[in-house]
Amino acid sequence: MTLPVFETPRLIVRSITEHDAEGLHEAYGDADAMRHWDLPPSVDVSQTAERIRLSAEADPRWHGMWAVQTHAGRFVGAINYHAHNEQQRRLALGWIVVPSCWRQGLMTEAAPPVISHCFTRLNAHRIEARIEPENVSSRRLAAKLRFTEEGLLRDWLCVAGEFRNVVMYSLLRTEWS
Fold first, then answer.
1. Assigned domain for 143 exists
2. Statement: residue 117 has pLDDT above 80
3. In which domain, by residue range, is 71 found?
4. Angle at CA 16, nearest 5°, toward 156 and 78?
5. In a domain, 11, yes or no
6. pLDDT digit string (tens) for 62-95?
């Protein structure tokens, strides 16, 4: 199964490739952009390329990552699903936008076709977003996408030896359709 390509009025959402390393490194190499991610920032473009390679080689039944670019070809972010559990019919969604493109509504536009894909093609019943409490922009995005805030998971995430809380959000298939 290959990841489909989606087009929106401003964006193309397509499978990420190692050719996207420079663009993604704008986010992955930025400490501010990565402060709420589950990995420390990439030290250089080659480390970002390696992270992309690992994503691209993952079995798409369990993990998939899309590059988000403008119609002009500018890389602006990425969105992925991960932790797909077919038996429980749930998965998690994650997203990141390059800092120079923050607050332009790009992920609000890119996420809906990915969410639809997760519900229809991947047969998910529940999509989760686990967001650190301080990540106000992502929490706002989850609300715009009609996710429900469920509660705090204490020390749920460990990044570079540091434990972090996350707020669990979910969107059920019946709420989406």
1. no
2. yes
3. 6-125
4. 50
5. yes
6. 999 999 999 999 999 999 999 999 999 999 999 9
In b/e form, how buried is each residue of 87-96, taking b as 16+ CB within 10 angstroms? eeebbbbbbb
* Cα–Cα distance, 7 to 70 (Å, whole number): 10
- Report which of 134, 139, 119, 106 is spatially closest to residue 12, judged by C-alpha positions: 106
**Measured CA distances, 71 to 45, 53, 83, 87 (Å):** 24, 24, 30, 37
User: Of all helices (H) and strands (E), which one includes residue 154?
Assistant: strand 148-159
- List beta partners, residue 92: 82, 128
Select from 76, 160, 140, 82 the least CA-distant residue to 110: 76
Number of domains in the chain: 1
Nearest to 27 by CA among 41, 38, 14, 39: 41
- Domain assignment present for residue 49? The answer is yes
Q: Which two tokens stand for residue 3?
A: 């990841």
For residue 96, the domain's CATH number is: 3.40.630.30
Per DSSP, the chain holds a count of helices (H) and strands (E) of 6, 8
Within a domain: residue 161?
A: no
